Amino acid sequence: MTVVIEMVSDLVCPWCWLGKRRIEGAIALTPDVDVQLIFRPYELDPSVPAGGVDYKEYMREKFGSDEGKERASAMRQALIDYGQEEGIPYQFDKITRRPNSFDAHRLVRWAQGQEQGSAAKEALFKAFFHDGRDIGDHEVLVDIAGQIALDQKIVADLLATDADVENVRNEANLFRQMGVTGVPTYIANRQFAAQGAETSEKLAKFIRHAATHEPEERPAG
């Protein structure tokens, strides 16, 4: 039986890069299960303007208190440590802009249609969390499209229009309505859910559990 895993995540969420690596690790640990991994959009903060905002100022407002700063610092160090285990080279100090991630989600949607969804997610995470690039900028997105063998002119033309804006927004809203309040969240066959960047071993158990139940609904690709 095929297990369809919908990974709901945001491209400005550092835990989501970790979560992507770990769900891929889980799939590798379950070679006897046919797993289809689909990436779904989520915006942690839809209020960020299209042009993005200064990253340090944004983080200062979010974690302004001394306690908040300590929590943010501890979380960042935890991510760096976990990232080293998964081969993820976080470089938070390079980030200068907190982008609006909506158009990056559009790029993932188009890439996924060309069976390049995983490559798009990986390239976007790396661009933001390692290279410090503004993944809300259309020129950056077109450059990334070229890195994953998408037609850059087509992507540039699409980004200049409202192509798939409604589809991406509806998808993101659907998962909010389903009760997703944090990412990464994994939904198996629209029956079972796991939240957070769990270890690959735990996610492998999640996959095997889903494989023993007939799906009530098969999500569209």
What can be said about the biggest beta sheet? 4 strands, mixed
What would CATH call the architecture? 3-Layer(aba) Sandwich
CATH superfamily caption? Glutaredoxin
Number of helices: 9
The assigned structural class equals: alpha+beta
Structure commentary:
By secondary structure, the chain is an alpha+beta fold. The protein has a single domain, classed as Glutaredoxin (3-Layer(aba) Sandwich), CATH 3.40.30. Helix content is 51%, strand content 13%. The chain contains nine helices and six strands; from the N terminus they run βαββααβαααααββα. The strands form two sheets. The protein has a four-stranded mixed beta sheet with strand order 2-1-5-6, with helices on both faces. It has a two-stranded antiparallel ribbon with strand order 3-4. α1 packs parallel to α3, α4 runs antiparallel to α5 (117-129) and α6 packs antiparallel against α7. The longest helix is centred in the middle third of the chain and has 21 residues, at 66-86. The radius of gyration is 17 Å and the shape is globular. The two termini are 16 Å apart.
